[in-house]
Write a structure and sequence with these properties.
elongated, 8-stranded mixed beta sheet, alpha/beta, single chain
């Protein structure tokens, strides 16, 4: 399988450039967390009171109660009753967080034996779902893949138009119909065309209007059903796009979409506009779903493969993204 999303550069300078952008994107999250940690650990031993205050600081960073308790307990196991400084705590937490994130840090991969690999992309309206599809398309094209896009969010004319813009930008064919068209029928035709034209990847956009959950569930189920008429294994991947600014509500979105479709992975966007980066840790701990990529800006390469150690270091405001 081939991975998606690197820039083709493997040198340390390129990696450091991305780390600095990630760190900048997470600056609101990390500055809040750092100031809270600093207020707890100023010339005092790690005692029951400071462990509880640390838990509260981690909860306020959207890591969730269970994750906060686990991290605080991990710190107290090795340092309880000892003098601890802010920097030591930040490094220890970053190491623990990286351990939680490592199992889910899995870049989007494409199986070359599938022609095409069918990727269904879900998400609430406003999460950056259609933009994420466009960015993945550009990165896949740069990797030499033949990509086709399907405008399956037929409910919103703006979503169709937005995907068509990305199609022109990336030189990828877009299968689209008039607003209100049957999304499942469109997905069927898109897969038919993608197979006929030898596409490597078919990215299918979907609607995300959660105020009418039952209709959305029926629509997603129908899309999956009609795709299987042509390929029993399709969709090969079902990815949920989450907006980091929603914080703990992202967990509820995973639960909702997981009840509608068999999710295979997550993408977390808008970390640069959020003080809630810790939710990625909470998602990893609770669901264990692969996190394929994180977004820290509008540019094509501001959506990059998720790396556990880099993310943990950036979240705690540390300078290095390496071991």
């Amino acid at each position: 399988m081939s991975g998606v999303g690197d820039t083709g550069h493997t040198d340390d300078q390129s990696k450091q450039g991305w780390f600095q952008r990630l760190k900048s994107g997470l600056s609101r999250s990390s500055s809040n967390l750092q100031s809270n940690i600093a207020s707890v650990f100023t010339g005092r031993k790690l005692d029951a009171a400071s462990v509880e205050e640390l838990e509260e600081a981690l909860i306020s960073a959207d890591m969730g109660v269970e994750t906060a308790m686990e991290l605080a307990l991990g710190l107290s196991k090795t340092r309880f009753g000892k003098d601890v400084g802010e920097d030591e705590v930040r490094q220890a937490l970053a190491d623990q967080i990286a351990g939680i994130l490592e199992p889910v840090a899995k870049p989007l991969s494409i199986d070359p034996t599938r022609r095409p690999e069918v990727i269904l992309v879900c998400g609430v309206n406003g999460t950056g779902k259609t933009t994420t599809i466009g960015k993945f398309a550009q990165q896949l094209v740069n990797d030499g893949k033949r990509v086709m896009l399907a405008a399956g969010d037929t409910f919103r004319a703006a979503a169709i138009e937005q995907l068509e813009v990305w199609g022109r930008r990336t030189d990828c064919p877009v299968i689209a119909k008039a607003p209100g068209a049957d999304a499942a029928g469109l997905a069927f035709e898109a897969l038919e065309k993608a197979r006929a034209e030898g596409a490597d990847v078919l990215l299918i956009d979907t609607a995300g209007r959660l105020h009418n959950k039952s209709a959305l569930m029926d629509e997603l189920a129908k899309i999956v059903r009609v795709l299987k008429k042509q390929d029993q294994e399709a969709p090969h991947q079902t990815i949920l796009v989450l907006d980091a600014t929603t914080g703990q509500n992202a967990k509820a979105q995973v639960e909702t979409f997981r009840s509608m479709a068999p999710l295979t992975g997550l993408v977390v966007t808008k970390l640069d506009g959020s003080a809630r980066g810790g939710v990625v840790v909470a998602l990893a701990r609770q669901f264990g779903l692969p996190v394929h990529a994180v977004g820290v800006g509008e540019g094509v390469y501001d959506l990059r493969p998720f790396e556990a150690k880099s993310f943990a270091s950036a979240l705690l405001g540390l300078e290095k993204s390496t071991d």
